[in-house]
Structures are given as C-alpha cells and as structure tokens.
Specification:
This protein has helices at 2-50, 58-61, 65-88, 91-111. With 112 residues, it is mainly α.
C-alpha cells in the first residue's frame, strides 16, 4: 500500500513541477515578446524624433515622449517583477513549497 502511495506522490510531484515550469516559460516568453516590441517602439521613436522620419499612420504617429515614458515605466516594472520572481522565488523555494503541499495532502489521506 505504501509503495502505491509513494508512486502517486511522485507522479503528483512530477505533474506539479511540470506545471510550474510551464507557467515560468509562459511568463518568460511574454516578457521576451514585450521586450522585443518595446525595442521596436524605442527605435521608431528615435527615428521619428531625432531623424525626422515621417510616420503618419495610426499607431506610430502617437508615439511621443509621454507615451514612451509610460511604456518604459511599465516595461521596467515588468522587468523588476521577472527579476524578483526568479531571484527570490527560485527553485529552492518551489521545492519547499511543493514538499509542504505534498505533506498536507499525505496528512489528509492518512485521516481518510
């Protein structure tokens, strides 16, 4: 009986780790996409403001100092969030959290 419980526990832990990895990859992918689009926006802004390239169609004609300041703030907040998430909540934290969840689940199963 204990062997079966151990197998289920290992399967549960594996699924949990895969789910955490998927969430991390999805968040990282979103950040990279945001960084790429932000870089393009900064390049368009520089071309428009400093080199006088006329971008007179909808999204590009509205990129000005104010819009770029707000966008830069949002981008840097996102970058800080990624840094905090991966630095402070690293693998050790995740493993401890998973072990705690597993212990709670095993205690619940013992009482049933």
């Amino acid at each position: 009986m204990e062997i079966i419980m151990e197998i289920h526990r290992n399967e549960y832990q594996e699924k949990e780790l895969v789910e955490i990895a998927r969430r991390k990859v999805k968040k990282l992918k979103g950040f990279y996409i945001h960084a790429f689009i932000y870089l393009i926006g900064v390049l368009v802004f520089i071309l428009k403001e400093y080199f006088g390239v006329p971008f007179n169609f909808f999204p590009l004609k509205h990129i000005n100092f104010f819009a770029l300041a707000i966008w830069s703030s949002i981008f840097f907040i996102s970058a800080i969030d990624m840094l905090i998430t991966y630095h402070f909540f690293g693998e050790n934290w995740e493993e401890r959290k998973i072990k705690r969840i597993m212990e709670k689940e095993s205690k619940k199963q013992n009482w049933k």
